[in-house]
Structures are given as C-alpha cells and as structure tokens.
C-alpha cells in the first residue's frame, strides 16, 4: 500500500511498558518522516501529556488528542477542530450514574486540553501518570462546576471499582435505557478511568478531519493501536495494525498483528513499509 500518514496510539502501543521508547522505534519514526510521511500521535492524552515526550519523540506537528475530540498543531497551537460534550449531556450522565453507583468522582477536560476541572475527591484517587498532571496541583471543584459547562472529555473513576468494571456497569445503564448513548461516546484507553466524548467522536472521526486538512486519502493511512479506544481508528484506516499486547476486541478488527510494544512492534511494521 502507499502510505502518506501514520497514526499511532502512544501508551502501550508506541511507548513501552515503562513509558519510554526504544532507539529502534525512534529511528523508524525518523525514517518515516524523512520519507515525507506524516507521523501523527492519536491519543487519549491532552497536549500537556505530550509535552514531556516532545524532546524524545520530536512530535511537533499535528496531534489528535482526547480520543479524537480535538486536533491541534503542537508547534503553532492552531486548533483544527474541537468537538465537545454539551453541558446538559454531562449533567444527565452524572445524575444517572451517581444514582446507580455512589462514590464516583469526575473530571472535565476543557480549553483545548489545557484546563482540567476535577471534582472534590478526584485528586485523591489520581497519580501523576494518570493525566501527566500533579494531583496536588489539581484544583478541586464542586460537582456542579465540573458538570456546568461543555467539555472535550469527561472522565470518571471510583475508589474500589476498576475502570473495566465501571465501564461494564455504565454500559448496563445504556442497555437499560437509563442513558441515551446517541448523545455521547464512551470508551476505555487502559487508564484507571472511563472516558466520555461527544456523540460521533473517536480517533477515527478526528483522523478523518485531519486527513481532509492534509489531503490524505483514507486508503493512504497506516494506524497502530492496542486499546478499546483504538478500534474505530484501526477499522477506518487503510491498514490497521494491532500490537501483540492489544485487547482481543482490537485484534479482531485489525488487518495485521505485530509484536508487542515492548518488542518494537510499531518499528517492525514501519521498517517493512520503508
């Protein structure tokens, strides 16, 4: 296939289990860029979570953040698009979930990923690696502040329930008709929280908008991923690749399987392509 753009998830896909990147993977990314291929991070992270990687990975062009909720140029800060969950949808979602599962804590991502509005008690459950933000620096707010405005992404977690279990419970509320999933998208990224975006938003929707801007055809896209939030992107791309450590649901939709993130799986595919 002719590839003009590579879109890759970061955590547990491009990055190894320690959150680093091998010299071999760096060389493969540099070779792709030198060949004129756009290399785009497509991540659940926000720009603040990309900044410490920039000196290592050299990402300084377009990035898809918050699971495709917005596209931003990492150097110029130009915002290509921004798709937010309406405040009324957030408020209804939180009301229903709170009634079903006491003890859930919420946070909202706003202002092109620069503002993180955390509910009182959310920081107590968080570590720096969760959001690449110091929990001690999170300004705790009453729940009505978190739900009182639109957001690029709503995240929620629980002290004792893991994110897969919390996702399953919330999906049950959708199946029971208590939550209308026509109004939002919900996914997991492998982080210890569940993520909610606007209806129709995914890494695939964000990638489609970026490709339109760059004049790249869908058939010219090579995408890599491992998590539930990567499924749509791998399905949409001309060629979707799952790393060996990917969720089974991701492997099921991939066109190709490669080695794990700890075994330079992304680099192996790029090397073969070039």
UniProtKB/TrEMBL annotation:
Molecular function GO labels: magnesium ion binding; phosphatase activity
GO cellular component, one term: cytosol
InterPro entries associated with the record: Cof, HAD-like_sf, HAD-SF_hydro_IIB, HAD_sf
Keywords: Hydrolase
SUPFAM superfamilies, alphabetized: HAD-like
Protein name as it appears in the record: HAD-superfamily hydrolase, subfamily IIB
Organism per entry: Corynebacterium variabile
Phylogenetic lineage: Bacteria, Bacillati, Actinomycetota, Actinomycetes, Mycobacteriales
């Amino acid at each position: 296939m002719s590839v003009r753009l590579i879109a890759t998830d970061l955590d547990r896909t491009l990055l190894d289990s320690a959150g680093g990147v091998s010299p071999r993977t760096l060389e493969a990314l540099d070779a792709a860029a030198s060949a004129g291929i756009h290399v785009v991070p497509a991540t659940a992270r926000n720009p603040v979570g990309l900044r410490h990687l920039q000196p290592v990975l050299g990402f300084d062009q377009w990035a898809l953040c918050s699971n495709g909720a917005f596209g931003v140029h990492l150097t110029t800060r130009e915002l290509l698009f921004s798709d937010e969950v309406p405040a009324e949808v957030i408020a209804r979602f939180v009301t229903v979930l709170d009634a079903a599962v006491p003890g859930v804590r919420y946070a909202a991502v706003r202002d092109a990923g620069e503002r993180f509005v955390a509910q009182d008690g959310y920081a107590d459950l968080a570590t720096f690696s969760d959001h690449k933000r110091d929990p001690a620096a999170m300004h705790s707010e009453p729940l009505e502040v978190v739900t009182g405005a639109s957001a690029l992404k709503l995240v929620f977690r629980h002290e004792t329930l893991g994110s897969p279990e919390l996702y399953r419970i919330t999906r049950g509320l959708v199946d029971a008709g208590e939550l209308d999933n026509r109004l939002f998208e919900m996914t997991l990224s492998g982080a210890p929280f569940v993520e909610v975006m606007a209806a129709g938003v995914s890494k695939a929707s964000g990638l489609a908008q970026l490709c339109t801007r760059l004049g790249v055809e869908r058939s010219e896209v090579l995408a890599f991923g491992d998590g539930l939030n990567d499924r749509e992107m791998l399905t949409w791309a001309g060629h979707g690749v799952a790393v060996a450590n990917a969720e089974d649901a991701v492997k099921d939709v991939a066109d190709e399987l490669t080695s794990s993130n700890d075994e330079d799986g992304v680099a192996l595919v790029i090397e073969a392509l070039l």
